[in-house]
Structure formats: C-alpha cells, structure tokens
Amino acid sequence: MTIEQIQNRLAFLHLCLQFSSQEREKLTVYDRMLINQERGKLLNAIDFSQTILRPVPNAVEAKLTEIKILIKKHNWQPFNSNELNGK
Are 43 and 35 in contact, with CB atoms under 8 Å apart? Predict the structure, then answer.
C-alpha cells in the first residue's frame, strides 16, 4: 500500500467509526476493536514499511461497505468533520 492509500483507508475507517457512534450503531464493540487494530497497523505502516497489515475480517468489511453506502445516500457529515484535517 502506498502512503496515500493508507491515509485514505485510515480516513475511511475513522469516518465509519464516527457514523456508527453518531448516527446508527452498525458496529459491535468487537467490530470496533478489529477496526482499531487495523488502524494501528496502518499507522505503524506509515512509519515502518515492513509492518504486516491486519485487515478486518470480511464480515466487518461488509458492514463498512454498508456504512459507506449509507453515508453517501444520506450525504452524512460527522459533527467534527475537520478533525482529520488538523483544523
């Protein structure tokens, strides 16, 4: 994965976590834990390119895809949308 792909995935995972917290609880505590493990591995991969990535299981990825569709369908924006932009 390139740095840009990693950053895009991190932003997507963060947005899905926000959506699940602020709008609709689509993710279980276990799902959130797995997502945060992937986020940790991705953050580590930015600094150390030899890191082995740990993608979420297919069942969780399916939920993320569902959340992505809901976000686009409802044009949803998180309460703190500038958080990742450093604003």
Answer: no
| CA angle centred on 22, ends 42 and 9, rounded to 5° | 20
pTM: 0.78
What are 36-77's pLDDT values in tens digits?
999 999 998 888 776 677 789 999 999 999 999 999 999 999
How far is residue 10's CA from residue 25's CA, in Å, rounded to a whole number?
20
Structure tokens at 45: 């991969």
> What contacts 63, CB < 8 A, 6 or more positions away?
26, 27, 31
- Return d(Cα 86, Cα 1) in angstroms, integer: 23
